[in-house]
Give the backbone structure.
Amino acid sequence: MHLTVLTPGRSGRAIDEIRQIFGLSETAFARLFGVSRQAVEKWRRQGVPPARTADLDRLQEIARVFKERLIEARIPQIVRTPAAGLGDRTVLDVLEAEGVEPVYRYLHRLYSYAGA
């Protein structure tokens, strides 16, 4: 099985979109992946390594969910504000520590009519 690297152009666009939606510096973006800012620059030049492609895709997907559901200008503040539904952690803290799944569950609870 041959794994391909996410192309540099597509990688850069995805990185830029996520950074723009969440209002992240390059360093803050790198922290979400547990890598250095220099590693992110390498991703821009050479493409995202196969082991990280799905992570980048999922993060881009959840950034788009925020953009579709919330007022875009408020998203940077929202993702930096501790939320009771996330154990008094921020969205960015949860993304960094646990990935997108807990954030999806949190958003589902927020938008659920069941209130459970």
Observations:
- The mean pLDDT is 90.
